[in-house]
Amino acid sequence: PHEDGYWLIKQLRALPPEQGGQTPAAALTAFARVEDRVKALRAGFQSHISKPVEPLELVTVVANLAGRHDQT
């Protein structure tokens, strides 16, 4: 694969909403610097999760993206 998540999210965000252009997305990456988070959010991701992933953080982010705020 020659593309990465940034390429994919840019392609997705270029679509109209009815074709998935507003699909929620989180960047899951080993890059954990503040600059990496800013880059991911500016690219179109709603969240940035750095590895190693805390399971509760992952569940919380996915639940928020899915519109479910009651992760119990």
Could you describe the 3D structure shown?
- Helix 2 (about 35-45) links the parallel strand 1 and strand 2 (about 45-50).
- The relative contact order is 0.17.
- The protein has helices at about 5-15, 35-45, 55-65; strands at about 25-30, 45-50.
- It is about 40% helix and about 10% strand.
- The mean pLDDT is about 95.
- The chain has a two-stranded parallel ribbon.
- With about 70 residues, it is α+β, with helices and mostly antiparallel strands.
- The chain has three helices and two strands.
- It has a single domain, classed as Rossmann fold (3-Layer(aba) Sandwich), CATH 3.40.50.
The third-level CATH topology is Rossmann fold
**Helix-strand topology string:** HEHEH
Overall tally of structural domains: 1
Could you tell me the radius of gyration in angstroms? 13 Å
Largest sheet: 2 strands, parallel
The fraction of residues assigned to DSSP E strands is: 5-15%
For the record, the CATH class is Alpha Beta
Instruction: Count the beta strands.
Output: 2
> Structural class, from helix and strand content?
alpha+beta
What oligomeric state is this? Answer: single chain
Mean pLDDT: 93
Q: Number of helical segments? A: 3
Estimate the helix proportion, in percent: 40-55%
Question: Reading side by side through the largest sheet, how are the strands ordered?
Answer: 1-2
Spatial shape: globular
Low-confidence stretches: none
Instruction: Report, as a whole number of angstroms, the end-to-end distance.
Output: 37 Å
The CATH homologous superfamily is named Response regulator
